[in-house]
Amino acid sequence: MTEKKVLVFGGTIEGRQVSDYLNESCIYHTLSVATEYGEEVLTPRRYLNIHQGRMDVDAMQRFMQEGDFCAVVDATHPYAVEVSRNVRSACEKEGLPYLRYLRPRAGAAGASMEKTASEAEQSCIFVNSTREAAQYLETQEGQIFLTTGSKELHVFTEHISDKTRLFARVLPSAEVIASCRALGLEGKQICGMQGPFSADINEAMMRQAGSSFLVTKDTGASGGFPEKIEAASRLGIRTVIIRRPEEAGFDWEEMVRRLKLILEEEKKCAAGPEAAETEAAVSRTARRIGCIGIGMGTLDTLTHEAARAIREADIVFGAKRILESVQKMGLIAPAAAAVTEYSGTRIAEYLAELPQYRDIIILMSGDVGFYSGARGIQNAFPDETVHYYCGISSVVYFASRIPTAWQDAKLVSAHGKQLAVLNYVKRYPKLIMLVSGKEDVERICKELHEAGQSQVKVTVGTNLSYPEETIRSGAPADFLKCGTTGLHIMMLENPAAEHVITPGIPDDDFVRGKVPMTKEEIRILSVAKLRLTEDAVVYDVGAGTGSVSIEAARLCTAGTVYAVERNHEGIELIRENSRRMCLSNIVTVEGLAPGAMEALPVPTHAFIGGSSGNMKQIVELLLSKNPQVRIVINTIALESIAEVLNVLKELGIQDADIVQVSAAKSRVLGRYHMMTGLNPVYIISFGGKIL
What is the C-alpha to C-alpha distance for residues 32 and 39, in angstroms, rounded to an integer? Predict the structure, then answer.
C-alpha cells in the first residue's frame, strides 16, 4: 500500500520548520505556498514536494482529494484568517485531521506591553484591524513606517489622505513593488527587503524615513516583532500594533505529538481492517467524554470541578458564544483544539475520524439538567459513559440576587416559542421564565397589561453575573419598553393567582347570551372523563358559549384548546369569556364540523357537545388524525344517543363508557328551598392513549 503524505500550508518560518521535521522523519509531504517568492526561499528535499499558487476552499478540497493525504498542518501566517478558515473548511469536507500550528507570541516583551498601555503617554496603541489603524493615523500628524506587508497596503492608501506620509517595507519581488506603485507610492517610499531585521537595522530605516509612527502586527519572535518594538522605543516614536486574531491551535510540541498519533494510526490502518477495528475499540474505551454546564458564562459562576475538566481536555466543543466565553477565561489549554459544534450526532461523527483525542469536553450553557440539550449527548455515544458536570443555572443565581426562594416557583422556558403566559400567571403565584431577549419581555408585559393584570409584580434580570448586570422590578406597564440588551430572565408574582385545580366554574361567571351552555355539574363530570393532560391539544366541537373550552384551558396550562362553533354569536361569547377568565390558550374556529376541523393540529382530546347531524363524520375525522384520541360526547335527545350508538357500532369502537346523569339544583321559593331538575344527559367516553 502506498504511504500517505502530510499536506502543509504555509510560506512561513513555521511552515519551513514543519517541513524540516518531516524531512528528518523521512515522511513524504507537500508544502503549499501562495507566491513564487515563497517557493524561491525553499530548499529542495528528498521527501518534499512544493506546490505554488493561491487556492480557494474548492481548489484546496480538490488538491486534497488528488493528493492521498492523511493529515493537514496549517502553518500559515497568524493574520491569514481567511486562509486558515478555508483550510479548515476543506479538511472538514474531506474528513482530514486539521492541525493548526500557532506561531508563538512575542513573549515577555510583547505580553507585558498591553498591560502597561494605560500608563501616561503610552508609546503603544492597540487596534483590532488594519482599517482601525489607518483611521487612527489619519487623525495624527507625522511620517508612518509600515511593516504590515503589501496585501493590506491599499487600506492605508484609501484612508490616509496624504500618501506622502507613508513608507512601506515589503518583500523584494517585482510583483509586490509594482503593486505598491499602483497604489500611488513613489520609489523613495518603498523598501523591498527580506527579513528578519535586527533592532539596529529597524532603527536606521525608521530614522531614515523620519518616522513618527511604526505600524506592525504581533508576529511573534519569528516575525521580528521584538526587534521592531525595541527600535521604536529607542527612537521614542509611537507604535500602532494590530492585535493578533484569537484562534485555537497547538504549540510545536503538541502539534508534533498529535501528528505522530495520526501517522501511527495510519500505519495501523494500513496493516488491515481487523487491526484497525481493534485499535479503534481500544481507543473508544480509553477516552473520557464530559458534558459541562458552564453556568452563565463567567469564571465566577463556573464550578471548580468544571474548570479543571476544561483545562485537562485535549478537545473542547461548544456553541460559538460559549467557546468564546471559555477562551476569554483562559481555561482551554493552548494545545487543545476548540471546535464550534454542539450537536451530539455531529460531534460523534467528527471524533470517529480522530481517535487520537482522549479527553473530550462538550460545553452547554446554564445547567445540564435545566432546559439543556445536554441529555441528548448520551444518545450520540450509546456505548460510552458521558460524565455530566452541573452548572449554576440562571434561575438559581437570579433567585439569590433578588433575593427569593425558588422551590415554590413554576419554572418555564419561553426560548423560541410562544407561551400562554396568562394561563401560567392565573394559576401560579410565582413564575420564573427563561426568555430570549427584551422582545419577549416587552411582549409578555404588553399581554399582561392589556389583560388588566396590573397587580402582577414583574422582576427582570439582565446579563446576570456580568459587570453590566441589572435587576429591576415594577408593574407590567413599566416594561412595555424594556430598554436593555443582552440575556434576560423574568419573574412574575401574582397575589391573585387561583389555587383551585379542579373543573367547576360557576355558571354565573360566564357571559351566556342565547347560546346553549353545558351546565356546571355536567361539565365537571365531562371534563373529568376527558382525562386531560397539562399539554393537551383539545377540540371542543359545538363549543357554544365556550364553558367546556374554558374549563379545559384552565387545566391544560401548557396546552391549546380549539373551540369549534358555527354560530358567530357563540364565537364572540367564547372570546369574551376567554378575556374574562384571563386565558390565552383558546383558539376560536368559526365553521361547521367536521370541515372546520380539517386544518387543525392533531388532537389528543376532543369534546363533542353538538354535531349538527354530522356525528359519524366528526368522529371519523378525529380518529383519522389520531387513532388514540380521547373522545367525550354529551347528548340529551334519545335520537342523539341512538345516533352515537350506531356510530360506535359502525366504527367498531368496543371500549365506550356510557353514563346517564340526572341532576337537580336548589332554588329559593319564599322560606323554602325547592329542587329543580336538569335535563338528563348521556356522557359517552372512549379512546385515550396520548400520542
Answer: 9
| C-alpha cell belonging to residue 681 | 344527559
C-alpha cell at 690: 396520548
- Residues 539 and 562 sit within 8 Å (Cβ to Cβ): yes
3-state secondary structure of 282: helix
CB 367, CB 347: distance < 8 Å: no
Instruction: Kindly report, residue by residue over 622-661, the tens digit of the pLDDT.
Output: 999 999 999 999 999 888 899 999 999 999 998 899 999 9
Residue whose C-alpha is closest to residue 356's, from 70, 27, 24: 70
d(CA 388, CA 357): 18
- Among residues 687, 622, 681, 619, the alpha carbon closest in space to that of 650 is found at 619
Find all residues with CB under 8 Å of 98, minimum gap 6, and list them: 72, 74, 87, 88, 91, 92
Give backbone dihedrals phi and psi of 467, rounded to 5 degrees, phi first: -55, -30
**0.90 surpassed by pTM:** no
Residue 21 identity (one-letter amino acid): Y
The Cα–Cα gap between 444 and 92 comes to 43
Identify the helix (H) or strand (E) that includes residue 573: helix 568-580
- Candidates 635, 559, 660, 567; CA nearest to 604 is 559
Q: What percent of the chain lies above the pLDDT cut of 90?
A: 47
